[in-house]
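Researcher: Please translate sequence to structure tokens.
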Amino acid sequence: MSIENLEYDFRSRRLALGLDFVDAEREAELAYPVRVEVEWQSPHRTPLPRNRYDFSQLGVAVHGFMRSSSGRYSLSYFPTIREQVDVRIHDYGRRYIPRRLRVPLRTLAEVEAIEAAESTDYLEGRVRTITLFPGAAYYHSSCATGLRGRVVRDGEPMRWAFVEARLPDGGATVARTRGDDRGEFLLLLSPDAVPGSELNSTLDIEVSIAGPAAPPVPPSPALPELDSLWDLPLEELPPFNVADNVSNGESVPPGYVTALSTVRAVQFVVGRVLTGRDEADFDFVMP
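Model: Translation complete:
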């Protein structure tokens, strides 16, 4: 049989959005996969099964990103795609803190024009690098320097705190992290957080907490049960050609404020992660 007589079907897809993740502590790719889902409604319905990290890109609506063997995630154009996409990133293993992002997209017409022009950077504006912060179950070195703390508000855990560590007297920021749904956070200092000339066995660091100006109230009493991440702040990424401090987690989430009552001087011990066993109270109280 001649090859000219063979019949075959093929399907081509164009990249709408690619996501590359960075571990905030390791400053490298993630050691574990995460789920990257597309939000369509409230409450958000998490696609099953729970152990899936790779979602089909076929059909009228897509519910999640496709994960490649390199650890990168992609979303293809589909019929009902919008000018922006709301993305939910989370990890059932609690190794990374979840994030919700609103990402602007290029239109399909813009992408086709870039391809027609044979641009050398045909992915411009379609790939974002997102930083994820360590969660409660994050594996860290036994020689790491850090703090496991908790944020409370009105006697209850305050969810999704923004945590920042600075050198004393208004010094430079040396570390950031986020809190989880239980109010717990893991703050790790990098080896170069303090100049070597100033390095001692202990480090005096000022830790501050930011949170919602007022406690979030669910629109319906059933929402927290239907959607465990219902109050996770939605962070909006700027257009690709604008300076971006949202993707890397440096910007405080919208509606968050830092309370003076949470600012606290902590004496870190080099080579140890402090916990409640080191100090009677590592609870930070948000008014």
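Researcher: Any highlights?
Model: The chain has two domains: 12-132, 145-213+255-285.
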